[in-house]
Amino acid sequence: PPKKAYEKKLQEAADYLAQMYFNGQSVDVDCQQSWHYYDNSYIKKMTQRDYLDYCEKDRKRRNDFSQQLPELTLEKYAGLFGWIDNIPLCQIGFVVNTNKLIHVANLRVKLILKNDAGVSDERMVAFPPLGLNTLGAEQGMGDSFKSMGYILMKNGDLCDYHKLTFTVKSATATINGKKVDLLKTDNLHIIQN
User: What is the pTM of this model?
Assistant: First the structure.
């Protein structure tokens, strides 16, 4: 029914606004305002006291780290393989982790992928924001210190996840509102697995 759909959309909007005020995304951090929206959202899992404690602790940690760059690690995460119209397709997943509560957005990494036979390809992978809060990416669900990005490959030669290695050609992100070249600052570290 329309009323239930409308109420669900209101709860989703409240969740989004709670995250904005909790994380300080496009607004100043306001823990009381964040609680107001969180209390009306569909994912409510915490008491008011716990929620406000997390919000204040995160605000302090973000302020403490505001002049620092995080150390990021990048590694292959998973590979999915299939066929469409006799064309091999795969999706290679990469995961990036951060060690600090610092907002990392617009992370773009240009990779050179290579298999054991010497076949290579250059691809860009984009990652959702990470390092926003200690509650998780969606206020209690997920891990906000980790983000995953995927590359869809139509080259079957590069679909064997276990024989695939990679190097980073370029890596940029917006960190605390400033564009950063992560190769120049040496803040992106590769883990080959």
Answer: 0.81
